[in-house]
User: Which sequence fits this backbone?
């Protein structure tokens, strides 16, 4: 059974909906607070991103998007098994997320030849909709079948 606290936590975590700041608060939050601490609400946040979401949702603050400067002369290794982007100094997992990052941020053209486990046997009737060669799960059977047809055409 949900109580008021877990209900509020659900809205914060899942829907990014926060209780509004008290209207009598005259203290304004500092967007660039190095400790991700909201002076108005007297709350700390675990990351800068979550803190900024709080500022947007609770305090209706408009902020410029954070952009990491990327050196487009350097390119990450799209086959890195740790899914680590050496240019952005950031980890991505699973594989498709890392490869998506390589394509969208570094404008790399990648083909489907980077199948992680080319010798793995694919179960087309896998109840978990998991492709063992690509190490990827799918949210629905149509997407799983589409992936198998597009990437592993010899199976279908």
Assistant:
């Amino acid at each position: 059974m949900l109580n008021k606290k877990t209900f509020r936590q659900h809205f914060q975590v899942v829907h990014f909906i926060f209780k509004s700041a008290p209207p009598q608060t005259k203290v304004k939050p500092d967007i660039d607070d190095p400790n991700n601490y909201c002076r108005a609400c007297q709350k700390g946040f675990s990351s800068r991103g979550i803190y900024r979401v709080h500022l947007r949702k609770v305090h209706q603050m408009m902020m410029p998007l954070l952009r990491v400067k990327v050196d487009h002369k350097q390119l990450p290794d799209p086959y890195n098994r740790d899914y680590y982007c050496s240019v952005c100094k950031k980890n991505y997992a699973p594989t498709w997320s890392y490869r998506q990052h390589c394509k969208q941020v570094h404008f790399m053209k990648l083909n489907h030849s980077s199948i992680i486990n080319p010798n793995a046997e694919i179960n087309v009737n896998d109840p978990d909709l998991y492709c063992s060669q690509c190490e990827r799960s799918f949210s629905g059977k149509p997407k799983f079948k589409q992936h198998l047809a597009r990437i592993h055409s010899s199976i279908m």
Observations:
- The beta strands are 37-38, 43-44, 84-85, 90-91, 130-131, 136-137.
- DSSP finds four helices and six strands in the chain.
